[in-house]
Amino acid sequence: MADQAHNSDNSGVSLTGSAPDHQNQFPPQGEPIFTGINRIGLWSLYIKEVRRFLKVQTQTIWAPAVTTLLFLVIFSVALGRSGREVLGVPFATFVAPGLIVMGMMQNAFANASFSLLAGKIQGTIIDLLMPPLSEGELMAGIVGAAVTRAVMVGGAVALAMAFWPGVDLSAAHLWAIIWFGLMGAVMLSLVGLLTSIWAEKFDHNAAITNFVVAPLALLSGTFYVISNLSEFFQMISRLNPFFYVISGFRYGFLGQSDIGSTDSAVAGAAIGLAIFNFVLAVICYRVLKSGWKLKD
């Protein structure tokens, strides 16, 4: 009996063949064992996405900066002659902030809309779906990288414009520059991620870019003040979220905008954008959670 008891202690199994209690503490099969945030996985995904666009930074960072600068050159030559002023500042100074944030938003969309779509087309989508990342972490990594690209493009455009004659990029309200720049980048990153989920080929992605993003950006008061429009088109402009991003960002530089020239008016637009982005984030999360177009 003593030998049997000794053998039972060494094997870790009782004489009746039942396992000790500590072996029954594992979660049932299929239940996740990670709790909280998978910081290492999230950081790895973010770095992967950032390195992806930095490998071709001539195309993803500097080319958009040159294209945006060409907009400034063309419109300054065409409309900025004879000392024309808008909102009390030279036309080039008026249009520069709008071009900066427009470039930021368009490139945030381009980066986020490529991530999942490329994986679906190339058959590597499993590399994003298999790692132990929740839907929120997957969304945060892709959106974070897109916002990083947007900030880099905005910095490159601002640097180029700072040397353009007649452009003054002095900051009147730094908080507005940071807030509206980030809110615009996050908004287009989420739209880009939704597009990446929905699209099945690059033509679908291009359709959203050409028929949704580009028109909303160009018809948002980037090159004009909406007070020059009729009341009907002013109302339409105020329904365009791009208008609040561009006008709020411009307020950060000029201290005035189409939204208003007071902190309270611009703060209302800032809160509205935050709510709009929150709704977009919830929609994006629910779509990712459902696995629509990803796990079918």
UniProtKB/TrEMBL annotation:
Assigned keywords, A-Z: Cell membrane, Membrane, Transmembrane, Transmembrane helix, Transport
Domain spans labelled ABC transmembrane type-2: 55-291
First and last residue of the signal peptide: none
Region (Disordered): 1-31
GO cellular component terms, semicolon-separated: ATP-binding cassette (ABC) transporter complex
Feature: compositional bias, Polar residues: 1-27
Residue ranges of the TM segments: 61-79, 91-117, 138-164, 176-199, 206-226, 265-288
Localization per Swiss-Prot or TrEMBL: Cell inner membrane; Membrane
Primary localization: membrane
Topology versus the membrane: Multi-pass membrane protein
Any one GO molecular function term: ABC-type transporter activity
Stored Pfam families: ABC2_membrane
Family: Belongs to the ABC-2 integral membrane protein family.
Protein's UniProt name: Transport permease protein
